[in-house]
Amino acid sequence: MKRISQILSAIIIVLMLVSCKNAKQKLQEYVAAYNAAAPSFKADNVTLTTARGYINDDKIELRFETGLEQNKANMMAGDMAFSKLLKEMINKNQIPKDLVEEGIRFDAYFLANDNTVLSKKIIDKESISEILK
User: Which superkingdom does the taxonomy of this entry point to (predicted)?
Assistant: First the structure.
């Protein structure tokens, strides 16, 4: 009986180690899942969204393309709307807190219709609490 429990314990430990994923694997899975779900993404002014992973940098780049023109009014309004959108995405786990806590940084870009940056936000361990306020 003792031998059986030792074998079962060893099997359980091996299974746990195999099933545990590191942050880089989670980053890759997140990017693939995000891009697969992107066609159904809905947000004000957002026409397209994509994710790109940078494994060596522990970073994910989120791009939100809009139909807005690049001007001061849209930059100011876009910055507020973008902050609200990112907060909602974190609360809905579309941007997973656990990835941020594991050291993955999200660089999020809100882009004008000419692909220039209206707003840029970095979501990391230090900034996530500020975004969630």
Answer: Bacteria
Burial of 95 from C-beta contacts in 10 A (0-12 / 13-18 / 19+) = buried
* Res 25: pLDDT: 87
Summarize pLDDT for 74-121 with one digit per residue, the tens. Answer: 999 888 999 999 999 999 999 999 999 999 999 999 999 999 999 999
Cα 78 to Cα 75: distance, rounded to the nearest angstrom: 5
108 inside domain: yes
List, for residues 33-58, the tens digit of each pLDDT value: 999 999 999 998 899 999 999 999 99
Under 8 Å between Cβ of 90 and 131: yes
CATH of the domain at 104: 3.30.300.250
Residue 88 placed within a domain: yes
Tokens 């979501």, residue located: 123
